[in-house]
Amino acid sequence: MVDGSDPGGAFAYPQSAIALDLAGVAAVALALVGVHVLAPEAVHDRLAFDHGAFAPETLLTSAYVHAGDAHLLNNLGGFVSLSVVTYLACLTAGRRAWFRRTFPVLLVALPVAVNLTSYVALEARYPGSTPISRGFSGVVAGFGGFLLVALGVQLRANYSRATAFFVGQFTVVLLVAELLWIYADRVSPFEGGAVTVGLASAVSGILSRGHGRRFGDDHFRQVGLDLVYVGLVVALLVWLVYGLFPARPTADGSFTNMFAHAAGLVEGGLLAALALVAVRR
């Protein structure tokens, strides 16, 4: 194929190939558990990214150590759910090669990019602060960005570029509204109006794609299934944002690095888009 897509969607791939891909996801999850359980605490400390010491190798290794069991379990749940749903989106769009290329990039390149972005942001916002960063949440956020891009690619393949754009617009505006709900003490009329207009225009654009056209029962059945699927994906992304951006980042004496989470979400989507371009060549 000229565009690098795989014909036939998910049904074009043998079950053994799909099982191998999912085994890769499981292997990463097991590696995270193995490091947490088997590595001594002193090793965990050496692998964490200390903003005061800035050991370059820890920009990567810090993603694979966690502060406690709850921290690990939260990241494991997010990683497995998001990576599997993203994989299914790529598979049904005939883009297995894209997932296979993006997956290692998010595991290796994204932690470095996230930690560097977080380091610069924290230094600018809180000069002289020396937090210690660890955890897979930046990568989890990156798979959220990947999922958003994959959803757009899938909708473009099954429907049209305009449909993908309007669904993407609706999702992004909804996530921005969620962040306003979490952090804004008071939503101004301008902010509320911008969110309302953004959501309304997106819904209007989606509905306009079918206005005046005649479709058979099979089409409406497929559209209904796709609406359920899109709704579940959007719900998963809303859940992700709710977990990554707590209202009180410094609760219980710990610090939730929202800069790293925001960087992971945005940079994960950008890296996925760049990998898609590379697959097409």
Primary descriptors:
281 residues, mainly alpha, two-stranded antiparallel sheet
Detailed description of the structure:
With 281 residues, the protein is mainly alpha-helical. It is 73% helix and 1% strand. The chain has a two-stranded antiparallel ribbon with strand order 1-2. The longest helix is centred in the middle third of the chain and has 30 residues, at 96-125. The termini are close together. The model has no long low-confidence stretch (mean pLDDT 88).
Structural class: mainly alpha
The global form is globular
Total strands: 2
Level of helix content? over 70%
Instruction: Give the biggest sheet.
Output: 2 strands, antiparallel
Short description:
73% of the residues lie in helices and 1% in strands.
Per-chain topology:
Layout (H helix, E strand, L loop, with lengths): L14 H24 L2 H7 L1 E2 L7 H4 L7 H24 L3 H30 L6 E2 L3 H22 L2 H23 L5 H20 L8 H28 L13 H23 L1
Antiparallel strand pairs: 1-2
Helix pairs in contact: 1-4, 4-6, 5-6, 5-10, 6-7, 6-9, 6-10, 7-8, 7-9
